[in-house]
Amino acid sequence: MSGWPRRVRATLALTLSFVVLTATTPAPVTTPTPTQQSDGLSGTWRVTRVCLAICVTPPPALKVVRHVRGDIFMTGPPTPQVLYRMGAQVLVHGPKDSSLLAIESPGRLMSGRGVGNDGSSFTVTWRCVAAPAPAPAAGVRLTGLTATRPGRALAAMEGC
Questions:
Q1: CA–CA gap between residue 12 and residue 116 (Å, rounded)
Q2: I need a labelling partner for 123 at 20 to 30 A (CA). Which of 38, 45, 48, 63 fits?
Q3: 3-state secondary structure the chain
Q4: pLDDT, tens digit, 9 for 90 and up, residues 6-18
Q5: pTM for the whole structure
Q6: pLDDT, tens digit, for every residue of 94-109?
Q7: Do residues 94 and 81 lie in contact, with contact meaning Cβ atoms separated by under 8 Å?
């Protein structure tokens, strides 16, 4: 590297320093505040499927959706799914099936059709049953609380 022109070495050193600095700098931590608008997908959804072919209609399931980044969301275990919002539609993809949902009422209701890896087909409806719980403020301890939270019921009526 000593045979390289001084300008090339300086540019390379500056570029590497920038890459190392940006790779090691943590992203700012943001927590939702009550004044922020809902993202329309985060929250708890009741998912109902109706089998159309080569399957058996399962009982409704609750799915907790969390925001990952941009228009990408995920459900939690036992069967994680990725949700990708595309305007007024949401593509839902999991290890066993995929579906395309139309957003009928933002933050409240989505429905569409899906297909399984085994060739099965179904209709599916996602209905919001609870908005995401707000993160506790820094330094606030919530241990020992047993009262219900009326604000939580109101948030569920507002949608996800």
A1: 50
A2: 38
A3: CCCCCHHHHHHHHHHHHHHHHHHHCCCCCCCCCCCCCCCCCCEEEEEEEEEEECCCCCCCEEEEEEEEECCEEEECCCCCCEEEEECCEEEEECCCEEEEEEEEECCCEEEEEEEECCCCEEEEEEEEEECCCCCCCCCCCCCCCCCCCHHHHHHHHHCC
A4: 544 444 343 333 3
A5: 0.65
A6: 999 999 999 999 999 9
A7: yes
